[in-house]
Design a protein that fits this description.
single chain, alpha/beta, Rossmann fold, 7-stranded mixed sheet, binds S-adenosylmethionine
């Protein structure tokens, strides 16, 4: 891993993911997690303060980056729910099949190398009918924005920890076999090529 990825990127990810709009999204979705919860791509732990201790029986949070997990560890003591933090990839989850009630994924799918594999793994570990709470940025609906997103992604991902601007989140969830119980797509503030978001609840079949 390069010096950029180890030293600069954790700082940039923390800064980018702390905007007021994103914190509001966390506040809206994370408290809906209940039972045995798995968060994939926990990053620096910005969701951790938002879990509701009266609903969560266990919280497991994974990320492949030791640098980001170290920051998450520092934040873990601030929340009401103490997580078990594991270094792992969403594409090979160290959990039994059908053992998770709720999965949480915020601004993670964009950076996972094999998103179809990660979604398949999520469906494997979720109980039948279990829910995935998601907030992701991805492919916009406007053709001109899509052109920018596709053109910029090869360069952008080199400096952003593998983040893709052009992931068609709705279609990826559906192709993986999730049922979209609730989904909102919107063009948020900021540059159109990073600001198109998908948020809601997907159910494993
Ligand atoms: C933009 S950050 C978002 C962090 C966090 N989810 C948040 O909302 O603040 C993208 C995250 O995806 C993680 N990631 C990348 N590849 C992954 C994989 N294969 N499995 C799980 N997480 C991954 C990165 O390490 C990073 O923490």
């Amino acid at each position: 891993m390069s010096l950029w990825d180890r030293k600069v990127l954790p700082f940039l990810i923390e800064k980018a993911c702390r905007s007021g709009v994103i914190l509001e999204e966390r506040r809206r979705h994370v408290p809906r997690a209940a039972g045995r919860v798995l968060e994939i791509g926990v990053g620096t732990g910005l969701n951790l303060p938002f879990y509701d201790a009266s609903k969560v029986s266990e919280l497991i949070a994974i990320d492949p980056s030791p640098e980001l997990l170290e920051r998450a560890r520092a934040r873990a003591s601030q929340g009401a729910v103490r997580p078990t933090l594991l270094q792992a990839s969403a594409t090979a989850l160290p959990l039994d099949s059908g053992s998770v009630d709720t999965a949480v994924m915020t601004y993670t799918l964009c950076s996972v190398d094999r998103p179809e594999l990660a979604l398949r793994e999520l469906r494997r570990v979720l109980k039948p009918g279990g829910k995935l709470l998601f907030v992701e940025h991805g492919l916009a609906r406007s053709p001109s924005t899509q052109r920018w997103q596709r053109a910029l992604t090869p360069v952008w991902k080199k400096f952003s920890g593998g983040c893709h601007l052009d992931r068609p989140v709705r279609e990826q969830l559906e192709e993986a076999g999730f049922f979209l119980e609730e989904i909102e797509e919107k063009q948020g503030d900021g540059p159109s090529w990073t600001g198109y978001t998908y948020e809601g609840i997907a159910r494993s079949g």
